[in-house]
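STAS/SEC14 domain-containing protein: structure, please.
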Amino acid sequence: MPSIQMTGWPMVSVRFKRHASDQDVQQWLSELSAYLDKRQPFSMVIEAKPESRFSPEARKNFGLWFKENRVLLGRYCCGVARIVGSATEGERMVSENMKKAMPFPMVAMADCNEARKWAESVQDEKTIMI
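Here you go.
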């Protein structure tokens, strides 16, 4: 079973269950590309277990993918809510610098239901604008 699980549309839930192999990351990037290929607004709620991480090679591949897809992400990704365990973790996972660097809004929230509500609301706003 892959370490990264993506489900749902147009609100996509992403769960990082454990350390992701390079193959898992490549599969995830392929799935993200397929979502962008739909050319429709979507939002994401991301939950990562503390033991989930990427190898240096996977980080590099993700960085390259992000650079190549930045414009499409800005156009179709309405926002990303990160589910975190504490305010400190939230500040680390969704720093002010990260928010400025992303082409979509990002928030960190401890409550899964609140994260989903936020993701739905930003998606609704973007859908109205398109």
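Notes: Residues 99 and 106 are 6 Å apart (CA to CA).
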